[in-house]
Inverse folding.
C-alpha cells in the first residue's frame, strides 16, 4: 500500500487555517477511499525518521523547500506536488511523492534538500517561491502573454507618496503578505502600508495599478478549472476561453498546477491580480471544498502514475 504523509500549513502563515486544513483533510479522505494509507501531521509533529511514499505538504516554510532541492540531486525516487511558530525537525522528507503547499522558510529548506536527492517535483519549492516573489513573477507573466495590471517595484526605504501616480495596490515584493489600496493623495494610507512592510522586514514593494471590473476568484487542479457558475453563464465564451487559456499559461510558467488567484474582468479586458500556490479552494463560488477534493486527488493519482512509469 502506498503511504502518504500530509503536513498541515503553518498557523502563522495561513490566512484561514481551518479552511486550509479542511482541503488537505478532504483530499486525504478521498485518497484513503482509493486505497492509500494517509497520516496527517503538523510541522512540530514531523520527525526525521518519518517516511512515506507520498508527502502532502501544506506548510510554507523556506527550510522545507531547501531540503527538497537537495533530494533532486540524488537518486532517491520521490515525487513532490506543490509547494514560525511551527518548526520541523526533519532533515529531508523521504517519500516517493511529496505534495507541497509550503511557503515558509523552514519547510522550503526541507523541500530543497529533498529535490537534491532526486525528487520529481510538482508544485516544486522553486515554483512555490516564485509565486510568492511577485516582483519576479509579474514580468514573467507579462512576457508570457498573461493579462496583468501595470506594476513597478520600489525599495520600501526609498518610495514616497509622490511615486504613486494613480490609485494603486501595494504588495510585498517577495513574499505573501497583506496588501493595501492607496490613492495618489492618501498619504495616511500610504504611510500605514509602508510602515507595516518595514515592521515585517520587507525590502521591496510592488506598486500595481488598481483596476475596475467584476472581481472573482479562479482555481485549478491541473486541467480542471473552477470559475463561478454565473461568470461562465454571463460572460462571452471567447472571454471565458481566454481566461482558461491564461490560467494554463500561469500554471506552465510557474510550475504550480494546484493553484488559485484573483481576477478582474471589465468588458473583454481581463486582469490577473494575484496568484497563490495550493489554496484552500474555499472561495470557489458554486462548488464546495468537498466537491473539489476528488479533482485534486485525480491530479495527484495521475502524476503519481506518470512518475512510476
Amino acid at each position: 500500500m502506498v503511504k502518504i504523509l500530509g503536513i498541515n500549513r503553518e498557523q502563522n502563515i495561513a490566512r484561514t487555517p481551518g479552511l486550509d486544513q479542511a482541503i488537505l483533510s478532504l483530499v486525504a479522505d478521498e485518497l484513503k477511499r482509493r486505497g492509500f494509507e494517509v497520516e496527517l501531521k503538523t510541522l512540530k509533529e514531523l520527525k526525521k525518521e518519518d517516511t512515506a511514499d507520498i508527502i502532502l505538504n501544506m506548510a510554507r516554510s523556506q527550510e522545507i523547500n531547501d531540503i527538497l532541492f537537495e533530494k533532486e540531486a540524488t537518486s532517491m525516487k520521490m515525487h513532490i506536488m506543490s509547494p514560525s511558530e511551527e518548526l520541523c525537525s526533519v532533515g529531508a522528507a523521504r517519500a516517493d511523492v511529496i505534495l507541497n503547499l509550503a511557503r515558509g522558510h523552514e519547510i522550503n529548506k526541507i523541500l530543497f534538500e529533498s529535490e537534491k536527492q532526486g525528487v520529481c517535483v510538482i508544485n516544486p519549492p522553486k515554483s512555490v517561491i516564485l509565486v510568492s516573489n511577485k516582483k519576479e513573477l509579474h514580468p514573467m507573466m507579462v512576457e508570457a502573454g498573461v493579462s496583468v495590471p501595470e506594476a513597478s517595484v520600489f525599495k520600501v526605504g526609498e518610495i514616497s507618496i509622490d511615486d504613486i501616480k494613480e490609485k494603486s495596490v501595494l504588495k510585498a515584493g517577495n513574499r505573501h503578505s497583506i496588501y493595501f489600496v492607496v490613492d495618489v493623495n492618501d498619504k495616511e494610507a500610504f504611510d500605514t502600508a509602508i510602515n507595516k512592510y518595514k515592521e515585517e522586514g520587507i525590502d521591496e514593494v510592488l506598486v500595481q495599478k488598481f483596476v475596475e471590473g467584476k472581481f472573482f476568484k479562479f482555481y485549478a487542479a491541473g486541467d480542471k478549472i473552477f470559475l463561478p457558475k454565473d461568470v461562465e453563464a454571463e460572460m462571452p465564451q471567447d472571454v471565458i476561453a481566454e481566461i482558461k487559456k491564461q490560467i494554463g499559461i500561469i500554471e506552465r510558467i510557474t510550475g504550480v498546477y494546484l493553484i488559485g488567484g484573483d481576477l478582474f474582468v471589465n468588458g473583454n479586458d481581463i486582469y490577473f491580480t494575484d496568484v497563490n500556490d495550493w489554496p484552500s479552494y474555499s472561495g470557489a463560488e458554486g462548488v464546495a471544498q468537498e466537491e473539489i477534493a476528488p479533482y485534486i486527488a485525480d491530479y495527484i493519482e495521475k502524476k503519481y502514475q506518470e512518475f512510476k512509469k
